[in-house]
Amino acid sequence: MNNVGGLDRMARIVIGLLLIVLAAVGVIGAWGFIGLVPLATGLLRSCPLYKVFGFSTCPINKE
User: Fold this and answer.
1) What torsion, rounded to 10 degrees, do the Cα atoms 47, 49, 55, 57 define?
2) CA distance 42 to 5
3) Which residues of 20-58 are buried (b: 16+ CB within 10 A; e: fewer)?
4) What is the gyration radius of the CA atoms in the chain, in angstroms?
């Protein structure tokens, strides 16, 4: 079930990629690879924490 939509999805992908690139080039420490989490949730359009709290930014699933 998709629960990540539009702007939320794009922000997750951009922030995730930015953190990964910064970590890869050594600007920030290895903790920057935590960017894999927002990248994955943006690409998969599903956030486990959103499911736990019953939250969704996907307009298709809103009723």
Assistant:
1) -30
2) 8
3) beebeeeeeeeebeebeebbebbeebebeebeeeeebbb
4) 13
| Whole-Å CA distances, 48 to 24, 34, 37, 40, 55 | 26, 16, 11, 11, 10
Predicted local confidence at residue 36, as pLDDT: 96
Q: Residue 57 in contact with residue 8, Cβ under 8 Å?
A: yes
Residuewise pLDDT in 10s, the chain (63 residues):
888 989 999 999 999 999 999 999 999 999 999 999 999 999 999 999 998 998 888 887 555
Q: What is the largest CA-CA distance in the chain?
A: 45
User: From CA 11, how far away is CA 38, in angstroms rounded?
Assistant: 9
